[in-house]
Amino acid sequence: MYKSYKYPDDYHDDTKYDNQIENAKDFNCDDDREDNDDEVVLEFIYDNNKINLCKAHTPGTVTVDILTFDKIRNNFDVVLAKFDDKYPFGEKYDQFKRFATNVANSKNLILAEIPITDYGEKENEMLALEYGVKKEDHPVYKLFLKGKSKPIDYTGDKTEDDLRRFLSHNANIWFGFPGTVEELDRLAQQFFVASSNNDENTQKSLLEKAHGAVKNLVDKKEQRSGESYIKIMESVIKQGSDFFKRESRRVENLLKGKITNEKKQELQHRANILLSFQPLTIMPLSFDWPFPEKPSILYKAVSTITIGLVGSFSKFWMKYLSSVRIENGEFLLNAVLNRHPDRPLITVANHHSCMDDPLLIAIVINLFFNRLFKYFLAATIPLRVFWTRHRMRWALGADDIVFTMKKHQLFFSLGKTIPVTRGDGVYQRPMNFALEQLNQGGWIHIFSEGKVNLTKEPMRLKWGVGRLVAEADICPLVVPLYHIGMDDVLPNVEPYALQIGKKVSIYVGEPLIFDGLVEEMKKEKRSLQEIRKAVTDIIQNELYKLKVKCEELHRQHLGSDSSSSSS
Known about the structure:
Pfam families: Acyltransferase (PF01553), ERp29 (PF07749), ERp29_N (PF07912). This is Tafazzin. The chain is α/β, with parallel strands linked by helices and 567 residues long. The protein folds into 4 domains: 9-53, no CATH class; 62-170, Glutaredoxin (3-Layer(aba) Sandwich); 182-275, Endoplasmic reticulum resident protein 29, C-terminal domain (Endoplasmic reticulum protein erp29, Up-down Bundle), CATH 1.20.1150.12; 298-558, Glycerol-3-phosphate (1)-acyltransferase. It is 45% helix and 13% strand. The chain contains 20 helices and 15 strands. It has helices at residues 14-24, 69-75, 91-102, 125-130, 160-170, 182-196, 200-215, 220-239, 242-256, 261-275, 297-320, 329-338, 356-374, 399-402, 406-414, 429-439, 464-471, 486-489, 515-523, 528-558, and strands at 44-47, 50-53, 62-63, 78-85, 109-116, 140-145, 152-154, 322-327, 345-349, 394-398, 417-420, 443-446, 477-484, 502-508, 512-513. The strands form 3 sheets. Strands 8, 9, 10, 11, 12, 13, 14 and 15 form an 8-stranded mixed sheet that branches. A 5-stranded mixed sheet has the order 3-5-4-6-7, with helices on both faces. It is globular.
């Protein structure tokens, strides 16, 4: 039995620290080390704020110090160094443990743990200073490549998947997840690309190569894994690329049930193989993922207040300090309030100003109050609707524009803005997260032009909206809308100050339903890329039809002295 000590108070008091050293001499560790009064080391790891002696090493890693680090760095092709507390704990450490276990078989890759202490002998403090590592940033990851003088800093989310993507992007190494085979993993990557492009000839050619590779395998476990690769490829050729998603969900649900350890290992291997059929070149965000996996009541409350205050301020500005004219506002309001609870919603708008999103939300709030007063006696709409977090929209925002500082990351994430990396494709994590929100019946607002359109000329819409429509469990309702005048309210030039008395015109289009189109194209075994393009083309066409109508509406608005709003 080991005694447990509280941290950090005990370790910042020299007297208590000395007493703990003395007490530790009475303990026998599970390994074969002899108790040496002069060499007693407290090796413990935090677990639920307690400390277990003699467990400081993470399986799959080597622990180094200032004397041994250069030897490791100079003798291996790829070294991922983790600077962290000596006894880490929590979700980030759990993610690293899983990562270390899963990449243990990777050739030429060494995971080096560098424990940092700010008490006692202050282990590796000089090494931390040399590489600019601060305690408040722990854990800090740096990638050292043989022949390179400077390390590559990892600034993304501290998750197993993102660490794997980071290494895959920066080092030409294979990650041997349990149950996977290197040669078949590379074929799986090519097969995924062929499936996305609906290239059946390439799919069949890769399947044939996979059969040949499996025949050459000697290890029986690898042979069993090889059969899984082949079955997945055959199923995708027969059922289409949607099989990847369906099978992943099936395996995930089975793993949550009560199964034997042997069956659990088999399913986990299959899950790992399915991961091999995904693109790995996507880079992680340059900061930690801002949304908690399980938001606390406090987080939800603060988020609700953030959205409510911003919406209320924007509503005040647009209603009393601006002149707004809206055509077909009821289309938008009905989609937000009256659609079937299982039917997700996507609103698509042009992008003329950095204030487009909150000001457009203000328009929805204004429409809400107009209807509220109109039907007040019937009490058909509760006032709490726009202070209810789950009813409000999620928006997509460029990570290099709105998430550049920690305070901005906190503010915008509380306001339900999802950071996306422009140019990183439709399969990046933020787009997956947006798809998850739609699958829960949520509302996503997206500026599909991908940036503030300073020229205001029609632009090719990005395919992200097409992916959200094509791959959602239930096809979303899509409401396009075009606006003019937002860049007068907040000009795109310094000092970027809100202006009073400006006129804004908004033209809302009829809701678009894509159920029939998506279903028909999937029956025809059209590729997801083809479906994304078809959906995006339709939305683009409808959006720019609204542009012409909105320009006429705005001309009338500018010619009128009236500041009333219409719905």
